[in-house]
Specification:
Structural class: mainly alpha
Shape: globular
Radius of gyration: 27 Å
CATH topology of the largest domain: Growth Hormone, Chain: A
Distance between the termini: 34 Å
CATH superfamily of the largest domain: MFS general substrate transporter like domains
CATH class of the largest domain: Mainly Alpha
Amino acid sequence: MDVDEAFRYLGNFGRYQTLVFVVVSIMGTWFPAWQMMAMVFTTDEPFGYQCKSPGAPANGSLVSYSANFSETGSDNKTAVEECYVVNDEMVNNGSLVSNQTACTEWTYLMKYGETTAVSDLNLICGRDLLPKTAQSIFMAGVLVGSLLAGTLSDMFGRKTVLTAASLLEGIFGFGLAFVWTYTGFVGMWFFVGMFEQGLNIIQFVLIIETFSPEKRTFAGCINGVFWGIGVTLLTPIAYFFRNWRHMQIAISLPSLVVVPLLWWVSFESVRWLVSKDRVESAEKILHRIARLNKLEAPDKFLKKDDSSKPMFALTAQSHSTDDNKNDTSQNGDRNTNEVKIVTGERPLPPGRGFRLADLRDTPLTVRNTFVMLFSWMVSSMVYYGMSLNSSNLAGDKYLNFFLLGLVEIPGYVVSYFMLEWWGRRPSLSLAHFIAGVSGVLCACIPVTTAGGFDMTAVITTFALIGKLGVTISFGVDFVYGAEIFPTTIRNGAFGFCSFAARIGGILAPFVLYLKDVSPFIPLNIFGALSLIAAVIVLVLPETHKRALPETLTDGEELARSARPPSCPKCFYFRRRRMSDTEWEAAE
């Protein structure tokens, strides 16, 4: 039997696999989610601040106040008064001269009594762009981590790199709490972001490789639910640890403590071992799973063909459904030991891999690639933008963040059923549309109406709907991106999509910085981009229950099958009335 058949025999969610799934999912989603979303509280701006005069008495006599220092939100102070001490001096001719001395020490008013990196490192008065820059540097670390994680795990194994990433994330996260300079802060934060992303990506790969094709979508969905739970759990941690340094220690120590548990409980990816011709090690793991699941194991799980190559399915065919297998059989038998990569109708010369020049005759594939890049970038930008903006919404910032995290849990569940029942293209377009409309409404609805009615609950409701929409779009992007590209460019194109998502995450903090110009700008930008994405993704072909394209020619044929969809309601009921065979023929 091959690897998929072995996991079917062992029971996809057997006792031992379920234990590993829970442990790896908690480690790989909760801890990274805490580090990622902690920036909402770590770099939150103070409610107000005031400048102390040089040589002020110990009780902190105050010279001037910032624009936001009172509960009334008065803004009748100028930037000079916030950042300088004004000393009036009488000169010889009797005139009064004002001298300005730059502030070196401030007193901060925090609405919830917390301490942030902004107040600790004095990131104000000409340095107010630095908190957003720090957030973008963290996201740059995430980008680097996404590029390195796959390569390192392919070289050294999933379990080894996963354990190392957890350990290093905990070390750098713990060390971050003891840094008192901005340079040291952003340097440490960059590495926290890098290892956070490495941990999150590798655990997802390990989870997906642990199940047969029939259960991978379900496992990926549940793994996303774990991420939503992790985001939600950060709220009570941040609420009880109001000092950002204490919170940073609290969210970093678990990454260190559970490393021995992870190493003892989890097992190396069987698929990776087989791909490295370490079949005996893979056999030991499969027999271990069978023993712990109390199943009778065969002498050999993995058979070898005549060429002494292990028979396993790591290519696109292993991820396909029975329909894909039928399609393969119709096209003739394929050599299991040789993968023929072709562009157009011509096979690539021996020894040469795919080149960008091979795309010259495939404009529709190029179009699909750019549309997916834009969709991923927008999903990431809006997701992180809405999360970081939670402290700027009307109402309690802790409650807002908790609700925005809580809504992600049903978001991943809904995305699963939408993908299975409705297809990829309409699901992605509708999700972007919901996020876009909600973002625009959030930006335009006043906190208080002319009649004095408080609109806080309405704003929060639309923010939750928007977060639900972007959570669904992010989940659909991952599935769509894995299915729409031909095998010849799938890994590279998927990597570019992930890269585009990180660019969106880097840009999100700077978009939020525009709230200093006008509080209406950031959410309107997020909403407009989501609405644009909702329209342009309609040019993509539907990939639900279709054979994965193997060559660029297959990709072009898939792209040509795209046509303007019917209204969502008509699409849904028309799909329900047709059998799978009739639907595929119609498509």
